[in-house]
Design goal:
It contains three helices and ten strands; from the N terminus they run E-H-E-H-E-E-E-E-H-E-E-E-E. It has about 170 residues and is of the alpha/beta class. Helix 3 links the parallel strand 6 and strand 7. The structure holds xanthosine-5'-monophosphate.
């Protein structure tokens, strides 16, 4: 049975890093208006904490997409067909919990470009060190981690463990 194991990042470490990311993102966009697209459900906590460090004009959307089942990537991204909205001429920042194979970020980036977004960048809280399906580097990453399955702070195993305030390794 899989259970929460070692803590990788405490609540305080997460908040300190998110505050620093918020400053860098604010500095990058300066006077440009920004739309943040948070990928649900995993990035919910991260997006809410990050956006509080961004300018008040920042707009926010949530896209519900998923590529994972249990502890494995399915190799395809569900949910993009349901996405509509006006992103034309907008600077868009995709916010996701974790970069793994890069399938999610590459497909969501493609979708935003097809909706005529002016620019598309991404910010992930965690980036797994592993081979990617697509060569994609997010502009901002909170922490690099080994290729481990992690939970907490929005990250789940079959919808459990999201409320943990810290990031922990899932141990078998
Ligand atoms: P890809 O492979 O598309 O994966 O880059 C990104 C999405 O996969 C999920 N994911 C995880 N979820 N613990 C989780 O709770 C993990 O270790 C993990 N690795 C990938 C997540 O939904 C992310 O958006």
């Amino acid at each position: 049975m899989s259970l929460p194991g070692e803590t990788l990042f405490s609540e305080a470490e997460l908040q300190e890093r998110i505050s620093a990311l918020g400053k860098q993102i604010t500095e990058h966009y300066r006077d440009e208006e920004l739309t943040v697209v948070g990928l649900m459900n995993g990035s919910l906590f991260f997006m809410v904490d990050l956006i509080r460090h961004l300018p008040y004009q920042t707009q926010m959307e949530c896209w519900r997409v998923s590529s994972y089942q249990g502890k494995e990537s399915t190799g395809s991204l569900q949910g993009l067909d349901a996405i509509h909205g006006d992103y034309s001429g907008r600077h868009v920042l995709i916010v996701d919990d974790i970069l793994d194979t890069s399938l999610t970020l590459s497909k969501v980036t493609e979708k935003l470009l097809s909706l005529n977004a002016l620019s598309v960048e991404s910010c992930v809280l965690l980036s797994k060190q592993r081979e990617r399906a697509v060569n994609l580097t997010p502009k901002w990453a909170g922490f690099e981690i080994e290729d481990l399955f992690v939970i907490g702070y929005g990250l789940d195993l079959d919808h459990k463990y999201r409320p943990l305030p810290m990031i922990r390794v899932l141990k078998d």
